[in-house]
Design goal:
Length: 547
Amino acid sequence: MLILEANNIKKYYRDRLILDFDNLKIYKEDRIGIVGLNGAGKTTLMNILTKRISPDEGFVKLYGTHSYIPQLDNLDDDYTDLKVASEFDVDYDYSNKLSGGEKTRLKIVKSLSKNSSILFADEPTCNLDMKGIKMIEEKLKDLDIPIVLISHDRSLLDNICNKIIEVEDGKIKEYKGNYSDYKEQKEMELKRKKDEYENYIREKKKLESAIQDKFEKTISMKKTPSRMGNSEARLHKRSTTQIQGKLHGARKALETRLEKLDKKERVIEPDKVKIDIPSIGELHSKVVIRGKELSKSFGDKVLFKNGDIQIYNGDKVALIGDNGTGKTTLIRMLLDGHDNIKVSKKAKIGYFSQNLNVLDDNKTVLENVMEDTIHSQTFVRTILGRLLFKNDDVNKMVSILSGGERVKTAIAKIFLQDINIIILDEPTNFLDTDSIEAIEDVLNDYEGTLFFISHDRSFIEKIAHKVIVLENKRLIEFNGTYKEYIESKNKNDEDQDIKEQLLVLKNRLSEITGRLSMPSVDDDVEELDREFKEVAREINLLKAKNK
């Protein structure tokens, strides 16, 4: 069933063509993720599809109504379904006091409370912690309407989407499957284009060589020897002319083949946001960060108490937990030199903060990075170039940069300092998926110690080999990947459920045993005996499951 169609769309900003595509159709079963670099036109595309803005050419037809979760929008006092709000742990009556994550949840509540034909969402997990992200993910899975979402959360795109639309150079291209399928198809496309270009160059060189060979043979044909008589000379000249004619014909045929050769353009791979981390100073300590009996409260609110952390040289540790549990507070305690936290004396820490306070808005990108670097300007410019700051872009004032550009400037500034420990607080905010994946590659190659906060499940899984969790006012260390931690947590939760079930069943079995040993007049002994066997069987099954 067709829900939306857009045809012959063109959208300009001043004289720049932002979007230019012929046709897009969305059906009832579609779960579409929109991806592309920052500034590629993803939000513009969504605004056109939702008719928030009009295309300069073309038209959009929407067969039904739509809901829209915007990335940046102020809350208003429209009525919302309080029952749905409660499911998202949002107290709507006090919306003016909500945190960023709660406001995001409320925007989603308001959209889901409408009976719409299609849902659009622009970065719906922005500001949400893992609990909120999982909650949104489950709600989106349960929807029986098409979904179109922009997100840099690759786990969300993998778990929700059955189609990906890539926005690149004003064009859109559809890929079947989720985000991982899209990446695999892109890699195959790139390989095919490389192979086609190499085959084209090989054939082109072969033809050019053959043409040159025919040309050289033509001009090297000897003149008539002087000792020949007139008759012989005429025969020689006629033979030479015939041969030259054949060579000329063969050369022209080869030139025609060369002209008709299906030209292939050299594959220009997208600029990778590659960050070269300087060589790290040697840390001789085995344990570089140790915290003992860590506690933190604000008035009556206890964030955590009596927690221990231990980070070894070369560890890559993710600090995770719901919003408000104290993750950034713990980082600040570390950086501020809390009495209960010991840091190696040779530690050189580079800190990336969510508020990007390492940047000076009144300086350029280059001036900001050069401020604390140990490298030459030439080297810094090279790194900034790899971060997509091309030519005069390095002279942009930080005050006019986009969110993603500011993040990359801050990361470049930190990584180009003389450091051996990196601490990152939500480094993937505002970044497109290509930028996130490039930073992942760099951090995986980094040989120093890394301690970071993130709600990006894919980012955590690909980098961290140790997890510290802030949960229920406790600091929990887990030696393993994020995936292994989730599996362990689910197993522990299941074990706890089994223990609780066993306790109930054992109590029931004890009660039945007592009644069987001294049955009352009202007791049905046969029924009690049957129930005894059934409860005993259930206990044995749970015990076997819990082994």
